[in-house]
Write a structure and sequence with these properties.
- The protein is mainly alpha-helical.
- It is built from seven helices and no strands.
- α2 packs antiparallel against α3, α4 crosses α7 and α5 crosses α6.
Length: 185
């Protein structure tokens, strides 16, 4: 009797062991590395987006740079989660849940509602410090201190168009985001 070459050792539950899966710890580390690279690409994207156009590096001024960086970022993040999930389902679920919570937290913090709330709170503090000052003057000083590069004419017009902090705050938030134009509705 010759031993059969097709015999493989039988693993528990009828699965056959694979040599590639011999080191799940290495795959966990590699998955975390790829995921971290995706998160670093996200931070790099944010830092470039916060700069003025001509302060960006020459390569980043191309119209294809932002979509390519965004695509690379998502590919790295999703492949990192997939590698983590293939090594350990618990690690994959934990990484996915953590990223989902992080994205939800950032969306909430950057929302117009939350930013308006912060502006109203800061303006109320300034109003308490100077109770006798007219509100128009306080709005002008508040906006000028927050955005000195906007120019006094623009800020005066904004204060004239939006005479209370409740009406001015959403416009400040939209202008901080680079809001261009008006959307009907």
């Amino acid at each position: 009797d010759r031993p059969s070459r097709s015999r493989r050792p039988i693993a528990p539950f009828g699965r056959t062991p694979r040599a590639v899966l011999a080191f799940p710890g290495m795959r966990l580390g590699f998955g975390f590395l790829i995921l971290a690279l995706g998160l670093l690409a996200s931070l790099f994207r944010i830092s470039l987006r916060e700069r003025r156009f001509f302060d960006r590096p020459t390569l980043a001024r191309s119209r294809f740079f932002d979509p390519l960086l965004n695509g690379a970022r998502w590919i790295l993040i999703l492949s990192g989660i997939a590698i983590l999930a293939s090594a350990s389902s618990v690690a994959g679920i934990a990484a996915s849940a953590t990223l989902l919570l992080l994205v939800a937290y950032l969306r909430f913090i950057r929302s117009v509602w939350f930013q308006k709330r912060l502006l109203v709170r800061d303006f109320a503090r300034i109003r308490r410090e100077r109770p006798g000052a007219p509100e128009q003057e306080l709005l002008f000083e508040f906006t000028s201190a927050r955005h000195p590069r906007w120019g006094s004419e623009l800020i005066e017009q904004m204060v004239a168009d939006y005479p209370t902090i409740e009406t001015l705050a959403p416009m400040i938030v939209k202008m901080e985001r680079g809001f261009r134009g008006f959307r009907p509705g």
